[in-house]
Amino acid sequence: MTSPAAAVVPEASDELTQRLADGLVRVNDRLDEVVDHDSPLVKEACHHLVDAGGKRFRPLLTLLTAELGTGASNEVVDAAAAVELTHLASLYHDDVMDESDLRRGVPSANSVYGNSTAILVGDLLFGKASELVAHLGSEAVLLQARTFVRLCAGQIEDERQAPDGEDPMAYYLRVLADKTGVLIAAAAQYGAMFSGCDARVIDLLGRYGELVGLVFQLSDDIIDITSDAETLGKMPGTDLREGVATLPTFYVNASNDPADERLKELLARPLVDDAEHAEALELLRRHPAIDKAREHTASLAREAAALIDELGEGDAQTALKALPMSVASRSA
């Protein structure tokens, strides 16, 4: 397995950073153990994205919220690994749905093994995550099940337009809360749940995590427009190519400036033509909608940070307050 992602949490003390780094090593070791398989092909396909690394943001959040209690027990590590496996499983499915060729700078699993195998590997990893959670008790199983249902529902609704009578931007944000926010909420809750925190703290961290998840996805959607392929690890403008509306495009469509008519025309359809796709990217990158989307994202980050005020003071609280804005302002 590759080295774990660095435990970079803004405003964390050196001691906290080291504990988080040590925890991530344990999580990565657990992932390596759990995805092992007797079949060389199955093992290789399961390791495809696990070994590609990634930010390990969700398990890192589980380890961080555990600092509000007794710290990274074996149960916390297993919960963190289960959350990451659930996330990785969803990526195998996402790449099939998006027909992606790259993921994290390497060929996507569907491009290497084919769509059917990629889907089945995703299913297998969901099963492995459930197996881990099953050892953590009925409360953890219920949280995993509810999270999985919302995640799938969000992904289904993401493929469709807002129903008649529902505000499109509100629909979009609700879908993001389901398909991304709910798993990050579960990551935050698991850390508190298995470190001895009370129900009030667990509930608060669920709300915090869902907001952080929204910030994470909104930031991703902005990065998909503003970054290049080398930084992104895949081709930029995936949402534009598929005709998927995101926060910047909502702001463009709300504009009354006649100069935006060409961009609106492009955004009204999937941009499968390379020249039109490049034109839309160029116009959108210099449009004020990007700054508006960034401010909207930052406002949600501030809302998440404000929740932590209810938890008093401490090293973990300081890091949890700083984390949302760090997510909002990232460039990759």
From TrEMBL:
It comes from Dermacoccus abyssi. Keywords: Magnesium, Metal-binding, Transferase. Pfam families: polyprenyl_synt. This is Polyprenyl synthetase family protein. PROSITE patterns: POLYPRENYL_SYNTHASE_2 (PS00444). The lineage of its organism: Bacteria, Bacillati, Actinomycetota, Actinomycetes, Micrococcales. InterPro entries: Isoprenoid_synthase_dom_sf (IPR008949), Polyprenyl_synt (IPR000092), Polyprenyl_synt_CS (IPR033749). Belongs to the FPP/GGPP synthase family. PANTHER family: ALL TRANS-POLYPRENYL-DIPHOSPHATE SYNTHASE PDSS1 (PTHR12001:SF69), GERANYLGERANYL PYROPHOSPHATE SYNTHASE (PTHR12001). Gene3D superfamilies: Farnesyl Diphosphate Synthase (1.10.600.10). Its cofactor is Mg(2+).
